[in-house]
Structure formats: structure tokens, C-alpha cells
């Protein structure tokens, strides 16, 4: 087990990713065995800070010190060798292996060339007891049967077995119920008690107050303040002001007020379940409206459910388990496929390659798109225990869904590369002299899909355009010039009468483009705001729940 871990110190550290995001002159320190929070909105640079410490993003300037030793990691492997572990997103387990085998993965105890399973199980039982799961989890039991919070405990146990001195957690509280949150928070405190330095990037200020002794607040890549954190201080209002300190809202373009226009899209009590963890709702009881030609924001931070909401509106792209009512142009629409959504007047553009976790290949979790489910199914069911060869793997994910923008009322759709190629051709025909940038040359693949979709819709006659389009983070990771191109196309599409639902975490974008914003946190709507009356701090406070 590790002794009290080394201190962590960032001194005027700057770094920049290939996507153009980064941090500049960030400084803070964490003493060994402490828990420290990193707090900021989604473009703050919190993830980049973790990437620098874990060796995924090189330091461009400044000094990173771990245990008194200056470090310039050239890779994540070098950071791991120095005792750093980063855990992002879903906690990972090998489902058909035991809990003990998962915890000791890569560090198995052996004698004479044979794994000593008895000792591993006994040590695992001791570890689980220290993390609050003694007697509740069988060390020899199947790891795939563990709940999400219990899988986090497996990850924490791995950190102790591997003698990690610095553990970085990126949004560890997402998707957990109250008992799960308590278990994970207790696990973080146990890591600290074992001498591990823990750094948590999270928007859950309420939970950071429970586990962290200090917090660094970031705003657009810069550290605004590092302060001690208690149950009541600093106030939430003060921290939110710091989080928005470096956000400058671009003046909104003049546009006609739409408050009296006809409502063309309406949701009532919309709920969507997770496609695999079907007991978990990722969108819960959301109701909203959009008027003709209106741009309506869907605003939320990591884990808020805005992307899941956006995808669930289009042929149940995110999950087949949805409920509630959707009205398009006053008519009910219950679309089970993307084709039915397009025919009903709904369009979607997303850069995400949405795929689902299924234990398909030798029991190893595999990622497949919903578009492949029919090809993999037999009698409507996917056999999770069947071995699928790589030749059966999906050819493309739902990132290609932006090609599914056929004419309103059309029965057929162009999908995959052929549809995208047609869209690119249409987009090229619309170019108005902005050169290669407007033609899409050099754009990231995901952003190019948004560009193609918007241009394809705009090339349709007004009467054949969708009634409403859903855009999922259309300007994410783009430079300022490309952001301007995409935003201009969104405004042009709305000016033609199409309602736009804009899922975004960019405060400036939401306040500049939209007339109203619905904020979500934890899958639930927390507020409806008129953006003419909103401020970055006020909007962010609602996004934080």
C-alpha cells in the first residue's frame, strides 16, 4: 500500500491541445493525501489540467512537480510510472472475470508461476471492507454483476494495489443515485486516508464540498482562484462568478422577437432510459416548446443529459425506451426510426459516434452503433453471449446521422459516406466566396458533419425543410473562424422558418444565438430563461442545478 503520497504542484503551467483548447499559466498545489477539486464550466480547461498531470498533454511552459521532482511527461506511460492514474468516464471492468481478478489485473500475486487466487481473494475482501463493501461484494463474484458505484470502488482498489500516489478523477459522480454517490464519496475519502493525493474535476459543487479540502476555479483556461473549501464557504454565488470571470458575451445580433409566433415543436413529460442500464433515466420528465424560426438552447454541463435528450428526439437514436409526447406542427409524432423522424419534419446533426456497450466479443464489452443492432440481432434480440467476428463490426456509427437530412416527408434517406458526399456537394454549391474555410476543407470530421447537414437543409426549398432541427454541440472544439461559419448557418436556417434546438455548453454561444434556454442538470430541466435577461453567471448557476 502507498505511504503518504508526494505533493502535486503546478507552477504557471500552460499547454494546448490539438483541438485548440488548453490552459494558460495555471498554478495550484495539493499536499500529499489531500483531496482537491477543479471547478469550471465545460470550456474552463479542467480536463486539460488532468491531461497535463497524467501525461496526455505535454507542458508547453511552466513546471509540473510531483513529490518534489519536476516532471515533463512525454506520454501517459511515463506518468503512470511516476505513480499517476487518471480515471475518466465509466469505470471499467472485465465483466466475466472475478472482482478480485479485476482489482489485481496486471498485478496478480503468484508463486512458482501460478496465480494465488486464494490470497488475492483474501486481500480483496480486506480492501472491500476498508471501502465500505465488506460482506456486500464477493471477491470471487463476477465483476459484470456490480453496479456502477461498486465499479468505482474496484477502480479505487486498483489504485492502491498499483501503489498510485496521485489519482485524477474526471466527473466521478455522473449517473449515480444517492446511495451510489455516498459510496463513491466514501471511497474517495478512503483513498485520501490511505495517503493518496486525489484531484477531482467535477461540476458537482455539493459533492466536492463533502470530500475536498480545497478547490481551484478555472475560467476559459486560466486559474481564477484557489481557496479552501468547506460545507458553506466560499458561497456558490462567489464560485460561479469566478467560473464566468473570463467569459465575454458577444453582442447578440438584432433579430425579430418570436414570442408571439406559432409553436411548431412541443415536448411533454419526455423521459429516456439509458440504452444498456435500463433502470437509469438519463432524461427525466422534460417539457419544452419551440416556435417557428426560433433558436432554443438546451444548456447543460457534463452529465446533464442534453446530448441524450437531443438524440432521443430523433427516431429514438439514443434509446428505444422513451416516453412522453412529441408534437410537430401540432401533430403527434412517435417515430421509432430516423426515417420516420425525417418524414415527420425532424432533423438531427451530431458529431458523436454514438455506440452502445454490449458484451459481444468473447465477453469483452464492445461498442456498436444502434444502426448495427438490426444486423446483429436474431428475432429482434441481441445475443450478448455470442462471439461476433470483427467482420461483423459496424461500418459506421451515428456520427453519420447528420447525413440523414432528406426532404421533409421523404420516405428514403441517404446514409453513410454516400449521403455525406451528397451533402458536401450541396454545401460546395452554396459557398459564397469564403474560400476553403467555407468549403469545409481541413475541418474536423465531426464538425464537418454539422457543416454538411446545415448546408443540405439550407439547399432545400423552404417548404421542404424540416420543421425543427436538433443540433448537438455543433461548434465544439472549433477555432473562432469555423465557429463563426457554423453560427451564421444556424441563424440563416432559423431565419427561413425552421425551429432550432441547440444543445450546447458554451455560455457565449447560448446567450448570443438563442431567444430562450432550457437548462438541464442530472437529466431534469432546472429552468427556462429568456436570454435577453440572462447573464453568464445566472445561466451557469441554473446549469449546475
From TrEMBL:
Q: Which UniProt keywords apply?
A: ATP-binding, Cell membrane, Membrane, Nucleotide-binding, Repeat, Sugar transport, Translocase, Transport
One protein family per Pfam:
ABC_tran
Entry keyword Magnesium = no
Q: Does the record carry Methyltransferase as a key word?
A: no
User: ABC transporter domain location, by residue?
Assistant: 8-245
Give the Gene Ontology MF terms in alphabetical order: ATP binding; ATP hydrolysis activity
Q: Which PANTHER family match?
A: CARBOHYDRATE TRANSPORT ATP-BINDING PROTEIN MG119-RELATED, XYLOSE IMPORT ATP-BINDING PROTEIN XYLG
The protein depicted here goes by the name: ABC transporter domain-containing protein
Which organism is this protein's natural source? Subtercola boreus
Amino acid at each position: 500500500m502507498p505511504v503518504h503520497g508526494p505533493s502535486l504542484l503546478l507552477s504557471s503551467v500552460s499547454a494546448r491541445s490539438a483541438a485548440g483548447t488548453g490552459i494558460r499559466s495555471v498554478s495550484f498545489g495539493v499536499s500529499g493525501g489531500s483531496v482537491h477539486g477543479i471547478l469550471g464550466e465545460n470550456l474552463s480547461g479542467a480536463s486539460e489540467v488532468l491531461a497535463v498531470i497524467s501525461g496526455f498533454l505535454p507542458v508547453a511552459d511552466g513546471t509540473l512537480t510531483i513529490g518534489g521532482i519536476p516532471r515533463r511527461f512525454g506520454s501517459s506511460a511515463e506518468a503512470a510510472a511516476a505513480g499517476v492514474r487518471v480515471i475518466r468516464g465509466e469505470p471499467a471492468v472485465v465483466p466475466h472475470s472475478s472482482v478480485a481478478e479485476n482489482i489485481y489485473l496486471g498485478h496478480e500475486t503468484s508463486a512458482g508461476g501460478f496465480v494465488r487466487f486464494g490470497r488475492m481473494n483474501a486481500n480483496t475482501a480486506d480492501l472491500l471492507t476498508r471501502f465500505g463493501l465488506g460482506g456486500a461484494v464477493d471477491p470471487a463474484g463476477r465483476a459484470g454483476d456490480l453496479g456502477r458505484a461498486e465499479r468505482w470502488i474496484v477502480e479505487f482498489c486498483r489504485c492502491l494495489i498499483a501503489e498510485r500516489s496521485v489519482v485524477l478523477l474526471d466527473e466521478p459522480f455522473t449517473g449515480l443515485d444517492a446511495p451510489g454517490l455516498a459510496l463513491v464519496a466514501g471511497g474517495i475519502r478512503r483513498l485520501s486516508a490511505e495517503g493518496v493525493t486525489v484531484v477531482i474535476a467535477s461540476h458537482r459543487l455539493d459533492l466536492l464540498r463533502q470530500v475536498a479540502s480545497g478547490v481551484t476555479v478555472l475560467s476559459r483556461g486560466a486559474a481564477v482562484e484557489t481557496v479552501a473549501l468547506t460545507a458553506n464557504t466560499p458561497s456558490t454565488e462567489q464560485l460561479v462568478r469566478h467560473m464566468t470571470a473570463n467569459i465575454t458575451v458577444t453582442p447578440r445580433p438584432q433579430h425579430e422577437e418570436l414570442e408571439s409566433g406559432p409553436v411548431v415543436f412541443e415536448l411533454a413529460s419526455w423521459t429516456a432510459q439509458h440504452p444498456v442500464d435500463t433502470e437509469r433515466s438519463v432524461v427525466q420528465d422534460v417539457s419544452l416548446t419551440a416556435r417557428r424560426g426560433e433558436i432554443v438552447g438546451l444548456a447543460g454541463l457534463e452529465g446533464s443529459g442534453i446530448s441524450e435528450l437531443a438524440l432521443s428526439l430523433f427516431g429514438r437514436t439514443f434509446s428505444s425506451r422513451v416516453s412522453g409526447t412529441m408534437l410537430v406542427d401540432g401533430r403527434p409524432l412517435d417515430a421509432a426510426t430516423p426515417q420516420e423522424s425525417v418524414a415527420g419534419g425532424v432533423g438531427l446533426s451530431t458529431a458523436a459516434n454514438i455506440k452502445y456497450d454490449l458484451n459481444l466479443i468473447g465477453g469483452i464489452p464492445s461498442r456498436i452503433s444502434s444502426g448495427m443492432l438490426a444486423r446483429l440481432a436474431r428475432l429482434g434480440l441481441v445475443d450478448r453471449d455470442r462471439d461476433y467476428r470483427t467482420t461483423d463490426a459496424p461500418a459506421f456509427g451515428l456520427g453519420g446521422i447528420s447525413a440523414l437530412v432528406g426532404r421533409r416527408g421523404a420516405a428514403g434517406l441517404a446514409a453513410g459516406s454516400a449521403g455525406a458526399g451528397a451533402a458536401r456537394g450541396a454545401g460546395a454549391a452554396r459557398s459564397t466566396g469564403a474560400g476553403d474555410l467555407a468549403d469545409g476543407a481541413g475541418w474536423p470530421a465531426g464538425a464537418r458533419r454539422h457543416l454538411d447537414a446545415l448546408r443540405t437543409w439550407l439547399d432545400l426549398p423552404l417548404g421542404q425543410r424540416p420543421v425543427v432541427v436538433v443540433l448537438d454541440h455543433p461548434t465544439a472544439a472549433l477555432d473562432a473562424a469555423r465557429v463563426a461559419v457554423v453560427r451564421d448557418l444556424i441563424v440563416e436556417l432559423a431565419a427561413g422558418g425552421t425551429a432550432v434546438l441547440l444543445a450546447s455548453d458554451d455560455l457565449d454561444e447560448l446567450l448570443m444565438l438563442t431567444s430562450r434556454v432550457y437548462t438541464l442538470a442530472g437529466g431534469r430541466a432546472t429552468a427556462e430563461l429568456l436570454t435577453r435577461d440572462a447573464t453568464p453567471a445566472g445561466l451557469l448557476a441554473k446549469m449546475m442545478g
